[in-house]
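tl;dr need the bound structure. longer version: we got a ligand (protoporphyrin IX containing FE) that a collaborator sent over and nobodys looked at where it sits. i said id run it. heres the input, straight from their email, havent touched it
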Amino acid sequence: MEFFERFAVPHPSPAIYASMVAIGLVVIAIIAGLTYFKKWGYLWREWLTTVDHKRIGIMYLISALIMLFRGGVDAVMMRAQLSAPENTLLDAQHYNEIFTTHGVVMIIFMAMPFIFALMNIVVPLQIGARDVAFPRLNALSFWLFFMGAMLFNISFVVGGSPDAGWTSYFPLAGNDFSTSVGTNYYMLAIQISGIGSLMTGINMITTILRMRAPGMTLMKMPMFTWSTFIANVIIVFAFPVLTVALAMGTMDRLFGTQFFTMENGGMDMLWANLFWVWGHPEVYILILPAFGIYSEVISTFSRKNLYGYKSMVASMVVISLMSFLVWVHHFFTMGQGALTNSIFSITTMAIAVPTGVKIFNWLLTMYKGKITITTPMLYSLLFIPLFTLGGVTGVMLAMSAADYQYHNTMFLVAHFHNVIIPGVVFAMLAGLTYYWPKMFGFMLNEKIGKWTAWLLSIGFLLAFMPMYITGLDGQARRMYTYSEATGFGTLNMISFVGAIIMAVGFALIVYNVYYSTRYASRDISSDPWDARTLEWSTHNPVPEYNFAIVPEVKSSQALWDAKKEGHNLFKGKYEEIHMPNNSGAPFLMSVVFFIWGFAMIFSLWIPAIIATIGIFAFMAHRSFEQDHGHHISVKEIEETETKMRGAK
Amino acid sequence: MKELFPAKQVLGFAFSILLTVVALAVIFLDMSFQMGMLILLVTAFVQAGVQLIVFMHAGETEDRPAIYTNIYYGVIIAIVTVLGTLLTMVWDM
Ligand code: HEM
Ligand SMILES: [Cu+2]
């Protein structure tokens, strides 16, 4: 019995027990459903073992949407708790756990897979490639992310959630103050999915550098590909810092090392430092692909070439370097001197400049353009003013002296939601709507889509504008309640209403998927938006090999020019195509990683050692494996192509 | 015959052994902590360079510009991060 006690939740509540039952029932339902409909084989062959970038992208997408739901439920609970003074819906401990998991889930397990989803689906198509450079590694990246996310999500029913904030600052996150296994979950789950992200970084950089279609020089790449490239360069240089910091934190918690302790020469503030050396570049990893999506959408629906292509690229290159020069702005109040703070204030304000350049480029792209307001375009149009507001408050926070007033208040919370929601989330939803026909062969309903965009924007304003005010008035961040006398009640109630409206908006997305799946026309062309880039030049849905003939490119908007000038992108005749084989190894290896993580979290050393050996066994197996892929014959290509063309 | 003998690799190998011996000397010779760290740091970075250029063939293919850009970028970021950290956590505390 003693052995099992460690798995108990230290601070249970009826809601947690209810969730346990719900999780149990859902798992049983899924297993029963798969067995009843005889879908196990299909699941294994078509999804679990796939190395196809499009399918991996779709799996990222589904995971991101599920995590959005999980993080969203957390958010609504927090806003409900704060909606009235001295509210007792949640107690302090539950509130701590919820804001921690909300932050981690939204950044690491929602935003990251969402951008990876779009990168995976779009980039190979946009550069005229047949897959990413390392398809097997790509599958491993996904499954590591997925297992990390699952590991993190079981924490609240097995052993207890982390409760030291998504930043998990030491010494609070150390064993003295965080006694449950919650923070172990944080360290190991993020570690596992972080390794996956790092691999994606390497994969995407190689893909973009090595696999572009003939004629596509670097300066002829579509803007989303450029933004993906830069974001992945940042990933490759930022994520190792997180990996190392997490490893040190794990060792402090599990093996009694003293990296971040307050005695024996430990340095607790070093954690905050390392966290933000990764953390600030991370926000640019999220926002750059979002900018890329906006660039594609705005230029498509303004029917104009993207204004200032070169300055767009230059500003991203500058951002990629500068994003590594500003991290101290996250802890101006930690005690370093005025000199240091001033240096980082200036670098932070400077990084707003290249960001501003991009805003002007989008505005000038629309200037004199023939604008059609589709759902993706509506998101982009809402993004520009809302995001600018977030940028302006960012510059306010960047002034270190003033930040002593704003830091750790609701003002900060309002700032970063103000950049992340209109910036990243709207972009992902715009991208989702824009690329939906590419993924599934039908369009999402425009009317419901526009309703969603408006609801999310109104809900966003109601939910977060009041926080700027209460923050300036001193409402602290991460406090589970406040007294009547503060007078924060009304504004927090407005926030709650905003949060509910946003929840309705997100529910509408699910409804839209359902509605469009049932009623949308399947009879669409391969280019339903009249777009400009290569991904729209192949069939809908995209065949396994993407392009029957590798396209030849002359400009950054190859398809548009081909359409206008009437030249053929696909010259030559069909040739045999070499494609990678499916493999179960990435999935199985990630399962072993999951077991490894779980065993480490609960200090179960024997299983941990066995799982470690297992992981190395998989790597050894891969080193000696002979896998030459398979060939698609000309005859098969011809058959698929006639079928696809006939379907149009 | 000249083409067959990998002179660069053999020399590189000898040199990297030499660097290892020098680094190892820090333990066996009596010197101050600062001196020891300095020797370790210098030999470590030179060693990494030797490995990259001689044994991992950086710059021998048409990827040369991409690889070197990457290395310089990484070095710059590493230096800035380390100096910034020292400034924040030690020098200006
Ligand atoms: C004009 C550009 C920006 C500037 C000048 C800026 C400035 C700042 C500053 C100074 C802070 C720290 C404030 C404090 O802790 O007191 C901060 C926090 C934050 N920013 Fe920004 N920011 C900008 C853009 C962005 C973007 C584009 C994102 C994400 C997509 C972002 C995400 C965040 C997050 C997540 C935090 C808070 C992290 C935490 O403490 O949990 N920011 N920003
Ligand atoms: Cu930052």
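gonna send this back to them w/ a short note. Residues A 167, 283, 286-287, 329-330, 348, 352, 355, 391, 394-395, 397-398, 403, 406-407, 412, 415-416, 419-420, 423-424 surround protoporphyrin IX containing FE (ligand 1) (CB under 6 Å).
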